[in-house]
């Protein structure tokens, strides 16, 4: 399963007046197995763990280890949801850092169904808690109108060192 991972460059605040400075980020796409559509194949099951390791490594390189546990859980949940419910041939993962927030965007392909939403689950249900966890850990989260992209932001502590801080 091919993986491409271009790293985004630093974008200065004066490039977009009124917008926060975006520090280096991560953008990658995982090409799904021959079968596309909802559900995760056995070949795809390792990907959430791989993405979690990539997130951990990037946070370490950015000197943001204090955010790592929450960020890894968020990435795992959102990537798993993209595989389980997405309909695209690729899963896109983007992680960017501003001086105050870490932002994730997970693209699961056009017209992903059902549209992601946090929902109440029964005690005996095995799944359905991922977005509740994301909502509890993040400052904000949402879904694009077509349901193909889920995003969230996580505060990075002001006293935490990081690139450009």
What are the main properties of this structure?
165 residues; alpha+beta; disordered N terminus
Task: Kindly describe this structure.
The protein is α+β, with helices and mostly antiparallel strands and 165 residues long. The chain contains 3 helices and 6 strands, in the order ββααββαββ. It has helices spanning 47-61, 68-85, 130-137, and strands at 3-4, 23-31, 90-97, 101-107, 140-143, 149-155. A hairpin with a 3-residue loop joins strand 3 and strand 4 (101-107). The termini are far apart.
Give the H and E element order. Answer: EEHHEEHEE
Radius of gyration: 16 Å
Overall mean pLDDT stands at 76
Q: What structural class is derived from the secondary structure elements?
A: alpha+beta
The share of residues in helices is 10-25%
Strand content range: 15-25%
- Would you report the number of β strands? 6
Strand order of the largest sheet: 1-2-3-4-6-5
From the spread of the alpha carbons, the general shape counts as globular
């Amino acid at each position: 399963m091919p993986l491409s991972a271009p790293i985004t460059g630093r974008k200065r605040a004066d490039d977009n007046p009124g917008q926060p400075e975006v520090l280096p980020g991560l953008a990658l796409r995982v090409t799904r197995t021959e079968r596309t559509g909802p559900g995760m194949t056995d070949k795809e099951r390792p990907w959430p763990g791989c993405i979690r390791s990539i997130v951990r490594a990037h946070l370490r390189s950015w000197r943001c280890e204090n955010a790592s546990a929450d960020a890894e859980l968020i990435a795992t949940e959102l990537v798993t949801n993209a595989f389980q419910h997405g309909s695209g041939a690729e899963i896109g993962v983007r992680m960017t850092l501003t001086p105050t927030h870490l932002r994730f965007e997970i693209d699961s392909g056009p017209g992903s169904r059902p549209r992601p939403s946090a929902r109440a689950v029964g005690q005996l249900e095995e799944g359905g808690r991922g977005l509740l966890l994301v909502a509890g850990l993040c400052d904000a989260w949402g879904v694009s109108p077509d349901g193909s992209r889920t995003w969230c932001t996580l505060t990075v502590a002001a006293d935490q060192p990081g690139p450009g801080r």
